[in-house]
Specification:
With 454 residues, the chain is α/β, with parallel strands linked by helices. Helix content is 43%, strand content 15%. It has three domains: 255 residues, HUPs (Rossmann fold, 3-Layer(aba) Sandwich); 127 residues, no CATH class; 59 residues, no CATH class. Helix 11 packs antiparallel against helix 12. It binds adenosine monophosphate and zinc ion.
């Protein structure tokens, strides 16, 4: 068993990971708000926590890891989108949820074991809010229920800031019904045109943070191992999740993990800068999902990641080279390389792990190269991309060329050999002919379609 170390935002150190129950390792990751296509930044936590999920499955067994990632399908951004477009909310959230699943599958991300939608857990949220009121941590005011931040002494511990600093730094909403500007909404009233559920406080809808506390409790229990998300969520979202769950008497998550943000060509991705694009945009441009995944993982998750055209090109070249190498040795199996696994287990050092793959490729160690790529979520037959290259069988073409050469030597006419050779070359297959043998190798410009002429 490999020792896994993870950086815990809560303690600000790397710690040896010890699951509460190795037979039931439990992780929660905050998922998307479903009103639009996932942009490239949204894919980063998906790919990062997919790697962690794969590593945990590798170490504890595929049936012993529970991974919950929610869909936020009740939110003011969704309501606004519905108002803008005149479309029913349910249509927008259903369509966006489906897009998200398709786009993330194209990046080779495994589906979590549970993907709860917030709207399916309203009763659990109401129970939790009632409990917080009963325990003196929340209060009702003008149809709203607010969490009393000053009632939780450890508020701010995750992000390492005091409540007063947070008030100074954050744009907290001052509202007449709040006792304190820091208090945040657990429940708010809905007008007739907005989604709403009956509650002890009238018809309304939940605030954003309560859903994660309620769904984590329902699906993972009062205490679980890992909670993840982008570091833009540390404050206020995760700070608020902790306050709600701890005040409800839950142990909540042991390890808190946060990925840094993704930028594009050194700049924050934003619509106004014109460098905003979705995962689907890239896929539609013909960038294989595996390339996107590979570029994402070439930067450590705790560092800002810069998406650049140059990185995309390089990743494409590297993968083509490796896949050609793999295709040339179809009989080599999969072996997980030790150094690769050690680096991955060291707080998901994916960039270091990728460096070891370069070394394995140089050594021609195809089975370990395959083993490493597999653990990174590559070489997945279900993901359309270049996996056809990997399973491509060159043997029939080798035999064809050998036979043609035997015949050519007999009748002193090499035109057929030359014809086969030139088609192979044109299709991106390198041909090396020695006296005894013929060696074929797929190159990065491989185009299997062109072999149909043979
Ligand atoms: P949202 O739908 O905005 O709530 O975001 C869904 C997930 O994407 C959250 O885990 C965010 O932290 C993450 N996220 C959003 N923007 C970026 C970005 N530029 N880079 C990395 N992660 C991001
Ligand atoms: Zn959350």
């Amino acid at each position: 068993m490999t020792e896994i170390k993870l950086y815990n935002t809560k303690t600000r150190r790397k710690e040896v990971f010890e699951p509460l129950d190795p037979d039931n390792v439990r992780m929660y990751v905050c998922g998307p708000t479903v009103y639009d296509r996932a942009h490239l930044g949204n894919a980063r936590p998906v790919v990062v926590f997919d790697i962690l999920y794969r590593l945990l499955r590798h170490e504890y067994g595929a049936d012993h890891v529970k991974y919950v990632r929610n869909f936020t399908d009740v939110d003011d951004k969704i309501n606004a989108r519905a108002a803008e477009t005149g479309r029913p909310i349910g249509d927008i959230t259903a369509e966006t949820t489906q897009w998200f699943l398709e786009d993330m599958a194209a990046l080779g991300a495994l589906e979590p074991t549970d993907m709860p939608r917030a709207t399916q857990y309203i009763p659990q949220m109401i129970v939790m809010i009632e409990d917080l009121i009963a325990k003196g941590h929340a209060y009702e005011a003008e149809g709203h229920v607010l969490f009393k931040v000053r009632s939780y002494a450890e508020y701010g511990a995750l992000s390492g800031r005091s409540v007063d600093d947070m008030i100074a730094g954050a744009r907290v909403e001052v509202a007449p019904y709040k006792d304190d500007p820091m208090d945040f909404v657990l429940w708010k009233p809905s007008s007739d045109d907005l989604p709403g559920w009956n509650s002890p406080w009238g018809r309304g809808r939940p605030g954003w943070h309560i859903e994660c506390s309620a769904m984590a409790y329902e699906l993972l229990g009062a205490r679980f191992d890992i909670h993840g998300g982008g570091n833009d969520l540390t404050f206020p979202h995760h700070e608020n999740e902790i306050a709600q769950s701890k005040c409800a008497g839950h142990g909540f998550a042991n390890v808190w993990m946060h990925n840094e943000m993704l930028q594009v060509e050194g700049k924050k991705m934003s619509k106004s800068l014109g460098n905003f694009f979705t995962v689907r945009d890239l896929l539609d441009q013909g960038v294989p999902g595996e390339v996107i995944r590979f570029v994402m993982l070439s930067t450590h998750y705790r560092k800002p990641m810069d998406w650049t055209e140059k990185k995309r090109e390089e990743a494409e070249k590297t993968l083509r080279r490796w896949y050609s190498q793999i295709a040339a040795k179809p009989n080599d199996g999969y072996r997980t390389p030790n150094a690769f696994l050690r680096l991955l287990s060291d707080d998901l050092n994916t960039s270091g792990a990728i460096t070891t793959l370069h070394g394995l490729s140089e050594l021609g160690n195809v089975s370990e190269l395959k083993g490493g790529l597999k653990l990174m979520g590559m070489l997945d037959e279900k993901v359309p991309g270049w996996t056809s290259v990997v399973s491509f069988d060159l043997l029939p073409f080798q035999a064809m060329l050998l036979d043609a050469r035997v015949a050519a030597k007999k009748n002193k006419n090499f035109s057929e050999v030359d014809r086969i050779k030139s088609i192979l070359l044109d299709a991106g297959i390198e041909v090396r002919m020695s006296k005894e043998n013929v060696e074929l190798e797929i190159t990065p410009s491989f185009e299997p379609k062109k072999l149909e002429q043979l």
